[in-house]
Automatic annotation (TrEMBL):
Coiled coil: none annotated. Residues 205-276 form the FBD domain. Transmembrane segments: none annotated. Gene3D superfamilies: Ribonuclease Inhibitor. InterPro entries: FBD, FBL13/AtMIF1-like, LRR_dom_sf. SMART domains: FBD. This is FBD domain-containing protein. SUPFAM superfamilies: RNI-like (SSF52047).
Amino acid sequence: MLIGVEFVDECWNEQLFSNCPVLEILCMVSCTWSDMKNFCISNPALKFLLILNVEEEDGFQNCALKIHAPSLESLTYKGRPAKDYALSSIPKLVEVHIDFFYEEFGAMIDYGAVVLSVADDLLNTLPSYHNLNQLHLTQKVTVGKALIGLLEKTPNLVSLDFEGFVPAFAGEEEDNSDYSGDDGGEDNHYNEDDGWAVGKVATRCSFLEHLKLVSFDKFTGNEREMRWLKLILNNAKALQALDVSFESISHGKSKRLMANISSLPKASASCLLKFF
């Protein structure tokens, strides 16, 4: 375990790990790479890698991270996003935990300013995760291009867990438990990050084909949550169970939501609905 180490020399860091032929577990906590442009972790025996920085630390913010570990089975990264990433083939990878810290900035924008779009090149070059069968989204979901782009690349997904959604538009937190959208999934209130309508996801994403277990945590019944819940129920033919855990809503609203969800059409006749 390396704690509080300051890396300053790019020349020797790759040799540091490659010269440890029996290294299987590497934990790097509160380390800094402030004066480095590239940092490489290369080891053929490495199985468990943990990189942890608290929110106040820069971590890899100004440094590119390269990982060459063909035996890696578990990867945990918590901290600020690196400047860039380069990961070689990791065929044995089973478990990944990613938690990025970011800062929200508020500022006045002058008239005529240009608004930059989402990095489409990143979405277009996103690799396919054929071995990914469980996905747990621990941050509030915005459900724009990024999420849909990721789900398009998970053709063998079996278990999907949403932990909260960001409301689609201002005022959506109000009681809309009687929401009933049309089957096409069209919506005039908002647009998905200037991206794709949720109603079209079923024709684009093969992740629905093998999906068996889905859970919605911290469910409040906002329109964005209902659209995704309806999409999954309508199209996931292999679905065995869908769990909904309510949070911060009245007992009356939770009862109405349970009745509404239970009445939705299901592609899987054997799907079991559970409410908590």
